[in-house]
Amino acid sequence: MEGINSITGGGAANKPSSTAAKAPSSNAEVKTQATPDASVEVELSEDIRAAETEALMREAKVQEMREAIEAGRFPLDAKKIAENFAELERLL
């Protein structure tokens, strides 16, 4: 209970607990061990790589469609767009 009271400001707050005194020194040790030059290697699974490739391809297709819409070359079906909006409204 002494450690809890010292954290929450209870009656034993003036007494330093043994665990509270050790915490700063362990944090200091962690800080001295970490270096800005440290590097971490991460190997992605094939599923992640495939998803990343798919996302890049999808982004290219979306950009192509956006350009076609802006240029007036992409056929838009107003009835289908309205039906999709109505479906979204029902979900809300």
Distance between the termini: 49 Å
Low-confidence stretches: 8-23
Structural class: mainly alpha
Compressed to H and E, one letter per element, the order equals HHHH
Overall geometry comes to elongated
Enumerate how many helices there are, as a single number.
Answer: 4
Give the overall average pLDDT: 74
Oligomer state of the chains in this structure: single chain
Q: Hey, roughly how much beta strand do the residues contain?
A: under 5%
User: Measured on Cα atoms, how large is the radius of gyration?
Assistant: 29 Å
| Largest sheet features | none
Total strand segments: 0
- Approximate helicity band: 55-70%
Features:
single chain, 92 residues, mainly alpha, 0% strand
Please provide a written account of the structure.
With 92 residues, the chain is mostly helical. Helix content is 68%, strand content 0%. It has a domain at 46-87. It is elongated, with a radius of gyration of 29 Å. The protein starts with a helix and ends with a helix.
Quick structural overview:
The chain has 92 residues and is an all-alpha fold. It has four helices and no strands.
Give me the secondary-structure topology.
Blueprint: H1 2-8, H2 18-33, H3 46-71, H4 78-91
